[in-house]
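User: Good morning. I'm curious how iron/sulfur cluster would be positioned relative to this chain. Could you predict the structure with it bound?
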Amino acid sequence: MRIHLMVADEAAARSLVRLAELFGDGPSVTAGPEPVPDADYIVRLEASETGGAVRGRAELTRRADGQRRLAIHEGAIPEGASAEERRNIVRRTMNRSLLDVLRQETSLEQPWGILTGVRPTKLMHDGLRRGRPRVEIRRMLREEYLVSDGKIALMERIVDRQLAALPDLYELRDEVSVYIGIPFCPTKCAYCTFPAYDINGRQGSVSGFLAGLHEEIRVIGQWLKERGVRITTVYFGGGTPTSITAEEMDALYAEMYRSFPNPDAIREVTVEAGRPDTITPEKLDVLRKWNVDRISINPQSYIQETLDRIGRHHTVEETVEKFRLARRMGMTNINMDLIIGLPGEGPAEFAHSLAETEKLMPESLTIHTLSFKRASEMTRHRGEEKYRVASRDEINAMMDAAVSWTASHGYVPYYLYRQKNILGNLENVGYALPGKESLYNILIIEELQTIVGLGCGATSKWIDPATGEITRLANPKEPRAYIDTYRKYIELKMEALEKWYASRPLAAG
Ligand code: SF4
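Assistant: Good morning! Here's the predicted structure, ligand included:
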């Protein structure tokens, strides 16, 4: 299906295109000021402004029979609104009108309304931080963004849980969290676009990479110590950080403890051990030795055929066995990830995975919805039988099953994020038993704290303490490129950190 959006404002076109892409099974959407001859649908979009009122209009024409549909949405521009606020209000009226005509035409409901961003809960935090009453925030989400009541209630539960886990969430802008990226995995999964390189046969680059990473930890740690900046949380991700040997892990954590300021005051250290085939008793010993609080062992599915199909070269039994081993060896906070909509899976397979999860009862459970990321193997072969996925209704049924299963087992949702090309336009939700939430996940998703990224593919994000504005810097993804350039990235990071440090309210006092 091809949809063409006739819109004059190029900047507004981007969000309109993203929105139209949510309708149907990956429609091809174009935008431009002129009509095109071969589109199945042409939607003409306009906005007009009179006094303090804005009117967005969308008129859809179906090529097959010339049938038309019309939607008009209005908005008010408050007195004293800045040029940017004004622009946003105008765009929202067009977005709502577009959503409306496409909904009329396809009968597809979009529970997230016109919100296409990754972090919907940020909007709620933003309102709360500004002291807006909840009833007003709910009204805004419902009327200005057309978010369903169910999703608003979910957002509110999540925000409340986050504030219970981190009561000082809005006051952590003077501290930082640290993300450390280890870019190796035993094999590459078919849906993966993370910086993850097959560890076999790359020993040369593993040792070169680790040497660079040790240096990054030392230099940045020293800077943080000198400035008296506290670290709230540390997160080892990747890749699979337990792909390296137990000795390499031991040396890395020793470096962290030596270099970081006040390591005993760090509130949480997480190490992803996602692939069960990387976990050994020796590595678990190292994790315990360095007081790692939280690990992640990810089944993704308990159906062996699915694991084989998506290139995860481990068995279901291995996941269970490694989970039990980690428990026996004293790990008391284990996360597990499941994915809704893996190829070949429907509600029955997902119900099986939930039933297996019940036998283990990890402290937290992250339920992802499959997304077709552009660079993955699976997306390149999307049309093939091997990667056939469930229908939208089945995906919704699996999400509903996840919601009721987690609720009846004592899990509470505590963070959520959305991705482009996610099946059913749904979301990824982190659930945890109360008190077992990952603090790092809250901080990274809500973008309320500066994150310093070290290692491969690690993105640093500086949050301006006054304006909340975000500046990003990404380390190279590929180990070879990292080895060649990490010193330059340390310098760039130090410059950005100095700037951030000078802008903190504490610096002024
Ligand atoms: S284990 Fe995770 S990081 Fe590694 S290849 Fe699979 S999805 Fe990617």
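The chain has a mean pLDDT of 93. The first strand starts at residue 2 and ends at 6.
Let me know if you'd like a different ligand tried.
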